Structures are given as C-alpha cells and as structure tokens.
Amino acid sequence: MIALALALDLLGEPTLLAELTRARLPSLWAALALGYVGVGAAMAWHLGRRGHGLGAATSALVCWPLLIGLIGRPPPPSELRFTSPSPSGPKRARIDGCMAALRQGLGEDLDGGAELVDAAQLAKLARSLHRADHRIARVDRLLAETQAQRQLGADAQLEAAITGLRRARDHANHELEAVLSGLLSLRVQLGLFALAGESEPVRERLAELEARVAALAELSSIELAGVPS
Amino acid sequence: MSANPTAGTLAVVGTLLREPELLLASDDEAHDDDQVRDRLALLAPRLLAITAAGAAIFGLVIGSYRGELQYFYAALKTPLLLLLPVLVGLPAIRAFHDACEVSVSWSRLALAALVSIGRTAVLAAACGPVLWLYLSLHPDYHRAVLATAACLCLVGWPGLWTLIKSLPSGGRHRALANFASVAVLGVLLAQSGWLLRPFVVRPQAEVTLLREVEANVFSSLASTGSSARGRYHGWEAEGAGLLGRRRGPAASEEAPR
C-alpha cells in the first residue's frame, strides 16, 4: 500500500501525467477505480458461488481488502448471537497468561504445533478455567456479604453453612491453583517434546488437566449441594 | 445484549455504542480464526451499512452549510472519508503490530476496523444535530470548517480507541505499535478528507463533487486557522502532486501548456 501511495505520488507529477496522457492511457483515477471494482466484482462472484449472502457479496464489491479472509470459506453456519465475555474472577490475568504461554510454546517449540493440540481444545480449557475462577469469585462475594450480616445476630445453622461453603471454596481454589501449575509444567514439557520428539506425554498431560478442570466443576456442585441451607 | 441477542442491524447499532467488544471475538475465540471469519462474514454487511448510513447523515449536515447539490455530494463522500483510511492503512497497522510481536490475523484486524469505523459513524450521526445547529447560525466559512474538523476528531477518538482495544494484548512494544497505528490512521484520515473535498463549500463558490488537488491538508489547516483568526495574508493554494508535493517553478510554468 505504501508502494502504491508512492507510485501514485510519482504519477501525480505533471511531467509524468503529461507523458501518460500523450500515450493515450485512460485516466489514472479511472483505471485505478476500475481495477478496484473489478477485483471486488470477482470476489463478490466468488463469495456468491460459495453460498454467502447478498450482503457479504455486496460488501466485497465495496471493500474487498477487508474480506480477503473469506476467500474459499463456506458461509457461516448460523445467525450470530452476541454473548457476554466469558465470566471471570480474580485469577483472570494469570489464566490468560498461562494459556498465552502455552499457545506461544506450541508455536515456538513444535513443528505443526497446532495439530498436536487443537486451538479449539485450548480455548475450551481456558473457558472452563475462567468459569471455575468466576465461581470462586462469586462464593467470595457471598461470603463477604454473609460476614456483614452475621454481625447482626449469631445462628448455628448459618455458621455451619458458612463453614461448609468456605471449605468447598478452598478446595476449588486449591484445585484451580494446581491446574494452573500443571499448565506451566506442560509448557516445560513442550520443550522436552522439542528435544525428544514424543508428542504423547504432552497430549496425555493436557487430557489429564482437562479432566481435572471438568471434575472441579462437578465437585463444586456436589460440595455446594452438601452445604446446609 | 442479553434480552434479545440476535444480531439485527439495530441491535448492532446499540451494541456498537454500549459494548463494541461484544461484536468482536472474545479472547478465547480470537485464537480460532474460523470463528473470527464467521463473525466477519455475518457482521461486515451490517457494519458497512451502519457506516454508510451514519456517515451519510453527518455528510448531509455538512452539506447543509451550502445547500443545493452539496447535500448529495457530501452525503456520498463522507462514508468514503471513513472507509479510505482503513482500506489503505490496515496493512501498515498489521505490519506495526507484527514488528512489535503482537500477532493479529487479517480477519480479526478487518473486523476490529469495521467495528471502529461503524462506531465512529454512529457517533458522527449522533453529533449531527449539534453541528447542524451551529451551521444554521451561518458562521464564517473557516469557522464552519474548523467546527466540522473538531466534530470529526471528537467522534474519531472513541473509534480509534475501539480499534486499539480490539487488538490482542501482549507484545513487548504494543504501545509503540498502537501509537504508530493511530498516527497513520490520523494522517490518512486528514489526507483523505483533503482529497475528497469540498465538504463545506464557501457560499460564493461553485458546488462540485471533487476539487483539484492542491497543497496538502496540513498547510490548509494552518491557513484556515489563521484565516479564522482574521489574518488573511500570506496564503495561496499551491499546485501539488497527489500527496501534496509542491511544484517547482519550472513545473508551474509548464502546467498551463
């Protein structure tokens, strides 16, 4: 694009323009516009052939450079639904950091790392971790609110419920910390994989961590169900 | 967007104003390029329609200073004013971020750019009545130009901020890449406005779709500023190439022939 801009500037020189005019070339602006619209029309035709809607095809006609990523892709499967960002808690930055390090490790240490661990698999793991973190944050808020109310009057049943909830929270927090440590050790394993060329330990370790996060969600619900109401 | 999350165009307008990040892929989805492309395919037509409509409304308001055909011309050119800098500057923005170790896919960048100009256009349309009120007071031509430029700056910053926030985090020199991106887009926006002028036409001037390229946007803003302060001496539009290059004396002599 910068080269194009410089070329245009050069063509804007009066002598060059005069030479071009003498050679009976079409106007520069007209040629550029026709070229742009021609590429846009070709892309619109391509998107139409792939089954994209009229809107996408028309958009390609107007600003095809933005839609280059859609070349060769089928139309999106369903109507878009906006969802709020994934819930998160106080460990959001740490979880994101761990996942980013893991993604970076996959990119650096492995040839074809994306095939070893699927990006969607990592995204799912990250979502599960954020949900677990979010649950812990909610319990923390609940405990803080209950603490304030407890000062108004003591109740044995309430005390038992708080103790149970706190135990469940501590357990979930401990498990989450363990999974985050596991992710960091997985990052180290990726380095070992780069040396030894064995991918199976990495896959096994990741599957183990996924199972642990899934169990964390189940355990939380069981333990919370056991808290006296 | 919890009550009715289906992405109708009006819902997209509301989301652009309230939570533009909902239109973009979340951090989890952002690493899955397929999801980003699906979002781009679904949202691009709507965002472009919103940009065209919002910018056209703002253009109508600018055209109201002169009236007549300028209503139509300004409404036609203002959407281009927002789209051109993005179309030209996006490769540079991607290069800046790559150089600063922030990896961003083309589709994600395109989606972020469309969201940011869509937001700018909606905000510009929202600013329209205020500018219209001012222009209806028949201010001096130079003051009208400055008011229009100020309005565009005002609505441009939230758009640029949306673009910057939409790009992935990380990278050691991300701030540098952001600064360079904002600078490039700012200069491109200013020069696009200069190439596509006139938007605000002098009351005594002829209404035309495009004016011949002369000087550049920065010299023009400086002279407009001094003219607005009542100092009219020392400025003439100077002949220039496509990027505002000044003609030498020899070229100036040749031109009439």
Distance between the termini of chain B: 63 Å
SSE topology string of chain A: HHHHHHHHH
Largest sheet of chain B: none
- Provide the residue-averaged pLDDT of chain B: 80
Strand content of chain A: under 5%
Largest sheet of chain A: none
Low-pLDDT residue intervals, each spanning 5 or more residues of chain B: 1-6, 235-257
Unreliable stretches of chain A: none
**Count of folded domains of chain A:** 2
Transmembrane segments (chain A): 28-47, 54-72
Keywords (chain A): Membrane, Transmembrane, Transmembrane helix
Keywords (chain B): Membrane, Transmembrane, Transmembrane helix
Transmembrane segments (chain B): 47-65, 71-97, 109-135, 141-164, 176-196
What does this molecule look like?
- By secondary structure, chain A is mainly alpha-helical.
- Chain A folds into 2 domains: 2-70, no CATH class; 92-225.
- Chain A is built from 9 helices and no strands.
- Chain A has helices spanning 2-11, 14-22, 28-49, 54-63, 92-109, 113-116, 119-150, 156-196, 200-225.
- In chain A, helix 7 packs antiparallel against helix 8 (156-196).
- In chain A, 24% of the residues are buried.
- Chain B is mainly alpha-helical and 257 residues long.
- Chain B folds into 2 domains: 40-203, no CATH class; 212-257, no CATH class.
- Chain B contains 9 helices and no strands.
- Chain B has helices spanning 9-18, 27-30, 33-63, 70-99, 106-135, 141-166, 174-196, 217-228, 249-254.
- The termini of chain B are far apart.
- Chains A and B meet through helix 1, helix 2, helix 4, helix 5 and helix 7 of A and helix 2, helix 3, helix 4 and helix 5 of B.
Descriptive labels:
heterodimer, A: 229 residues, mainly alpha, 2 domains, 75% helix, 0% strand, elongated, B: 257 residues, globular, disordered N terminus, disordered C terminus, membrane (chain B), transmembrane (chain B), transmembrane helix (chain B)
